From TrEMBL:
Its EC number is 2.3.1.234. Binds 1 Fe(2+) ion per subunit. Substrate binds at L119, V120, S121, G122, G123, D152, G165, D169, N261. Its cofactor is Fe(2+). It is an enzyme of class 2 (transferase). Belongs to the KAE1 / TsaD family. This is tRNA N6-adenosine threonylcarbamoyltransferase. It is found in: Cytoplasm. Its main location: cytoplasm. InterPro entries: ATPase_NBD (IPR043129), Gcp-like_dom (IPR000905), KAE1/TsaD (IPR017861), Peptidase_M22_CS (IPR017860), TsaD (IPR022450). It comes from Lactococcus fujiensis JCM 16395. Fe cation binds at H97, H101, D287. Keywords: Acyltransferase, Cytoplasm, DNA-binding, Endonuclease, Hydrolase, Iron, Metal-binding, Nuclease, Transferase, tRNA processing. HAMAP family: TsaD.
Length: 318
């Protein structure tokens, strides 16, 4: 729950994480996620207003994520936002979760348009061309797994707890790319990602070694992590460069949980010369309400409001 002032000033940005409840299942359990949302949401609304030092009457609008995401969790946010908007006579603004990841950048720097956004999260890997503020056009995406999903699946084989992106990132910095896993679709001139082949190659390497009596996860974890991460980053950087070649822009925005990756941040800084790069600070990379408010501000200027019949769209796309 966040309170945003004048489009860029976050008065508060509360994150009620439920990762601990999902860890032992190795991924998010939808029913558990919904129940936690119900338990937390009212307290979060109250706490956000207290932290921001305002009352509901001071607000101009209420924004909420419409999708993409788990329908049960989305519905709880939407019900709470509708109720709040109705009770306090406020306009209601539906927001695309991925536009939120993109607009986290607006909270820390000035985005000059046209812009390109590399959005990499647990559910999505996509490149979005933003000709002007609020006009989004997806120009490339993953054919199969998202980058974050690949991190989490490979992490499971490595015996790491969910979500494992951060842990793999840390291990990777201690190792080298000794396994040379495949980089999918790098020879095509299409702006498309694919990470499922890399995931399978990783799992097969570990299992084949196991059959020969070797335990790579125990003996060579750093190099496994470095090899996996280098393959992911080669593809992310390569395809981003291709997108920047096809669509010249002034700003490259990077967003989503995987944008917290230190390896990715280093390579963006060293290898992207085509545009100014904005990568939000770590606190704004993962899911948070501040980014949703930032994306909503653009819609508010256009009075893109929803009625109380607003419904969740679990598969919402740009
Ligand atoms: O955007 P996000 O918080 O939630 C979704 O909308 O999916 O992204 C979560 C994803 C997880 O897959 C997690 O493993 C990944 O972001 N992640 C990372 C890092 N930190 C989080 N992946 C790579 N390196 C990291 N440092
Ligand atoms: Zn997200």
């Amino acid at each position: 729950m966040a309170v945003l002032k004048n489009g860029t000033e976050l008065l508060t940005n509360i994150i009620a994480s439920q990762i601990n409840s999902h860890k032992r299942f190795g991924g998010v359990v939808p029913e558990v996620a919904s129940r936690h949302h119900v338990e937390q949401i009212t307290a979060c609304i109250d706490e956000a207003l207290v932290q921001a030092g305002i009352s509901a009457e001071d607000l101009n609008a209420v924004a909420v994520t419409q999708g993409p995401g788990l329908v049960g969790a989305l519905l709880i946010g939407i019900m709470a936002a509708k109720t709040f908007a109705w009770a306090h006579h406020l306009p209601l603004i539906p927001v695309n979760h991925m536009a939120g990841h993109m607009m986290a950048a607006a909270l820390v720097d000035k985005i000059e348009y046209p812009a390109m956004a590399l959005l990499v999260s647990g559910g999505h890997s996509e490149l979005v061309y933003v000709e002007k503020e609020g006009s989004y056009k997806k120009v490339g995406e993953t054919r199969d797994d998202a980058a974050g999903e690949a991190y989490d699946k490979v992490g499971r084989v490595m015996g790491l707890t969910y979500p494992s992106g951060k842990a793999i990132d840390e291990l990777a910095h201690k190792g080298k790319d000794t396994y040379h896993f495949p980089r999918a679709m790098m020879s095509t001139h299409e702006i498309e990602f694919s990470f499922s082949g890399l995931k399978s190659a990783f799992i097969n390497t570990v299992h084949n070694a196991e059959q020969k009596g070797e335990d790579l996860v125990k003996d060579d974890l750093d190099n496994l992590a470095a090899s996996f991460q280098t393959a992911v980053l080669d593809v992310l950087i390569g395809k981003t460069k291709l997108a920047l070649e096809k669509y010249p822009v002034k700003t490259l925005i990077v967003g989503g949980g995987v944008s917290a990756n230190q390896g990715l941040r280093e390579r963006l800084a060293n290898e992207i010369t085509e545009a100014k790069v904005i990568v939000p600070p770590l606190r704004l990379c993962g899911d948070n309400a501040g980014m949703i408010a930032a994306a909503a501000y653009i819609e508010m200027k256009k009075e893109n409001y929803a009625g109380l019949d607003l419904n969740a769209k679990p598969s919402l796309v740009f």
